[in-house]
Amino acid sequence: MMNKNYSICFISFIFLFFYSILNFIFMIYFLMNDLIYFLEWEIISFNSLNLVMSILLDWVSLLFSMFVCLISSMVIYYSKSYMQSEMNLNRFIILVLLFVFSMILLIISPNMISILLGWDGLGLVSYCLVIYYQNLKSYNAGMLTALTNRIGDVLILMVISWMLNYGSWNYIFYLDFMKNDLIMQYIGIMVILAAMTKSAQIPFSSWLPAAMAAPTPVSALVHSSTLVTAGVYLLIRFNILLVDMYFMKILLLLSILTMFMAGISANYEFDLKKIIALSTLSQLGLMMSILSMGFPDLAFFHLLTHAMFKAMLFMCAGVIIHMVNDIQDIRWMGGVSLYIPLTSLCLNISNMALCGIPFLAGFYSKDLILEMVSFSSLNLLVFFLYYISTGLTMFYTIRLIMYTMIMEFNLISIFNLYDEDYTMLKSMLVLLFMSVISGSLLSWMIFSYPYMIYLPWNMKMMVIYVSMVGGILGYMVSNMNIYSINKYLMTYKMSSFMCLMWFMPNLSTYGLVYHFLNLGQNLTKNIDFGWSEMYSGQGMVNVLKNYSIFYSIYQMNNMKIYLFSFVLWIFIMLMILLSI
Fold first, then answer.
1. If DSSP codes are grouped into helix, strand and coil, which group holds residue 330?
2. Which of 47, 49, 104, 112 has the most CB atoms at less than 10 Å from its CB?
3. Which residues on adjacent β-strands are paired with residue 51?
């Protein structure tokens, strides 16, 4: 059984890896020759009914498919070791493959119907993967994930119904010349809302940290290149339609607030996987905000660079969690760099790429985005929130490194800390290589001309200033000697508001369902168990029961006593009458 599972693992890994290389070769060819292929495959033709499957191949879809396949192949190879004690490894690999297939279907679709198939496939398979460990927490998280994503599915269905007016669902043909049409404006708003649910923008953010109930390899896949990036990718495709819409200004505000909220919440969180999930949420806010400002190429660039180091970050977190007896609380870790140096190396480099340290992958996209923000004519609120959120990224990253790497070891024993699981290390080292080179590689390929942004010295250095301040604050807060800062930051009201993502999980679960459930309980108590029960089943039972009790008295053995007393009473009456 184990050999069969491993063979499926290995075949899936080989297939996805070589498919990603093939995609890369085609992408270079398409980019150099400026090609776009629109393929249509007629599935059924019956009288006037035509069922056609259409595929759009250009350098964007091929490049993104290459990244998805490369990361998923590494995740499957990593799972071979990470999930080795799993009885149903076969089922797990098949679910991951379904997930990847749904994403690729969404990437290559110029048609709303096939987009819906990929979009809904992502939602369904993500539910199956979140509830994989089958406990109460997983079921709750899975239901929250599925129901939030269903909002996006419904909006895509509404887009499909609105597009019936145009005679075809190939949206790619209508974006440019129909963008002033009122119906097309409605379609644009629905697409933006659907993308906000999938990419977990405020007010739909609460499902993303909850989805951490899934196995760690799934988290590495979901939070890097598949589920959460589907919304960003859809907006990149629809960008021609959306670029002048007023609703994009609202999206800009919401996405910047998402970035800010995720950065603050990550500093109050102690669960290792949730900290990384909140950093994903922060980066998604960054992508959506730059997209809403009208720079889809920059959003796509950051989407790709972020995918590499975020997948590696989750893989490193999985190794550490495995080694400290499956504990995810960072307060129980510390000093692990002494025992697992190679994993620590990967973790630190991915963290530095996340912070935008120069010449790693994250720097090329993040620095460019922040310079474009400085260059744009935005108001002061947007400008400050951008830079504060960048500082907060450094803040929670340094805090994470301090708790896991530098401070003293806090676990009970260290007997199982080892760095010799070469299966997991190989997959991490491939992503490490990509995390270092992918930024410069993509910046040379995507942009046909170099972006040269001229700014004053202090504006140019602003990213470094806020990063340094964030790093110093992260060190001070995580260093337990400075007790007063911790004492102020960790007061109950402050920490509960910040740690609970501005009470968003409460609003999206308890806040929504409490009144409905309470109403249902009152209706049940007063109607089902109240008046309707009294005047129907329960009332009839009571009447019949009382009659049966009454009649059962006559059916007892005391009948002769009644008869005797009756005769005695008659005899007494006769005696009285005779005496008169």
1. helix
2. 112
3. 44
Are 259 and 289 spatial neighbours (Cβ–Cβ below 8 Å)? yes
Question: Residue 193 contacts by C-beta under 8 Å, 6 or more apart in sequence?
Answer: 151, 152, 155
Considering only CA atoms, which of 123, 107, 106 is closest in space to residue 115? 106
In DSSP notation, 258-279 reads: HHHHHHHHHHH--BHHHHHHHH
In the chain the first and final C-alpha atoms are separated, in Å, by: 107
Helix (H, G, I), strand (E, B) or coil at 469: helix
Distance between CA 121 and CA 146 in Å, rounded?
11
Distance of alpha carbon 153 from alpha carbon 233, whole angstroms: 15
What is the reported pTM? 0.84
| Alpha helix stretches (DSSP H) within 83-215 | 89-107, 112-130, 136-162, 182-198, 207-210
Please give the average pLDDT of every successive group of 10 residues along the chain, which has 580 residues. 66 90 92 89 82 88 92 90 81 89 91 89 90 87 87 90 83 79 86 90 85 87 85 90 85 90 86 90 91 89 91 90 82 81 90 88 87 84 88 89 82 64 84 88 82 83 86 78 50 59 69 76 77 74 82 67 81 85
Tokens of 110: 């110029």
CA-to-CA distance for 29 and 7, rounded, in angstroms?
33
DSSP 8-state assignment for residue 329: B
